[in-house]
Amino acid sequence: MRLATARTVEGPRVVLDHRGQKRLTALPSLSIALRDGALEDPSAIPGVPIDHDAPLDLGPVVTDPGKVICVGHNYKQHIREMGHELPAYPNVFSKFADALVGPEDDILLDAASTAWDWEGELAVVIGRTVRNATGREARSAIAGWTVANDVTARDWQRRSSQWLMGKSFDRTTPLGPWLVPASEADPTDGLVLTCTVDGVEKQRASTSDLLFDPVWLVAYLSQVMTLHAGDVLLTGTPGGVGSARTPAERLQQGQQVVTEIEGIGSLHNRCVTQENPASPSSDRI
Ligand code: MG
User: Fold this and answer.
1) How far is the CA of 164 from the centre of ligand 1 (A)?
2) Do β-strands 142-149 and 120-126 pair in parallel, antiparallel, or remain unpaired?
């Protein structure tokens, strides 16, 4: 069982992949599908069967999240190798939905920055409204997992103590390809996350090394804000980012970034300095 959002001639539509059968629903948003119980009873969601191998033009797995919340410095090994003490509380920031792109879309390297960097991450999608959650409530509020790359303009990030400007350029953050239900994978078991640039591995870590795990983060965030179905949480990146290398490395026009999490999925994105007017692809269903 998994869910995605496909771009169709009629707009975004949720796709269900359940028991080996893909179905195109009339639902325009994964947030709505989650509120309608797509995880609890997928067979109750109407949809048209589509060929399992038919090419899909996938958008961000959630196209309209009410919130995109991010965590910085969350892999223990990476924090220690940077010479820092393990923090008592996570560094939390946000980005906006306009930053999101699909799992095979281009990443737009805006000319306003000269220091584009990769950050492969596990992403959490919220499945139900929750506030002041206990650990148990936080666990049940997580719909599932997907893959993200928190592509960052380091120069803009470092202009001030607040990271927002370096993290929210339009069309920089691939998210997808599918939502894998929380019941089908557990990051605390240790899923291997990798990020490669032009085939060269830059990041490799286990999600079991997360200092603040997804359930803890959902409970923590819910002490401050109500989380709703479709909200997205990026859980932080491990070591190996370009800015921590000597000499520093930056993403360049034409480079191919592949971000993968074992058992969750993979993102395949080309870096471009100008938006391609021909994209997204014309093979829409
Ligand atoms: Mg990040």
Assistant:
1) 11
2) antiparallel
**How confident is the chain (285 residues) per 10-residue block, as mean pLDDT?**
97 96 96 96 94 94 97 91 90 97 98 97 98 98 98 97 97 98 96 98 97 98 98 97 94 98 98 73 53
E-strand ranges in 150-255 read 152-153, 173-181, 192-197, 200-206, 232-234
Distance from the CA of 70 to the center of ligand 1, in angstroms? 6
Q: How far is the CA of 244 from the centre of ligand 1 (A)?
A: 13
- State the pLDDT at residue 282: 45
Neighbours of 248 (CB within 10 A): 12
- What's the rounded Cα separation, in Å, for the pair 230 and 148? 15
Alpha helices in 27-180 (DSSP H): 30-35, 76-81, 135-141, 154-157, 164-167
Closest CA to 124 of 237, 231, 228, 6: 231
Task: Give the residue among 70, 167, 164, 68 at the shortest CA–CA distance from 115.
Answer: 167
Predicted local confidence at residue 280, as pLDDT: 53
Distance in Å, CA 121 to ligand 1 centroid: 7
Tokens of 229: 């179905």
DSSP state of 222: T
Query: How many angstroms does the Cα of residue 45 sit away from the middle of ligand 1?
Result: 34
Q: Give distance in angstroms: CA of 238 to centre of ligand 1.
A: 9
User: What is the model's pLDDT at position 2?
Assistant: 97
Nearest CA to 57 out of 104, 2, 100 is that of: 104
Ligand 1 geometric centre to CA of 72 (Å):
5
- CA 99 to the chain's CA centroid: 11
**If you measure from the C-alpha of residue 2 to the centroid of ligand 1, how many angstroms do you get, rounded to a whole number?**
24
**pTM of the predicted structure, to 2 decimals:** 0.96
The answer to whether the beta carbons of residues 257 and 118 sit under 8 Å apart is yes
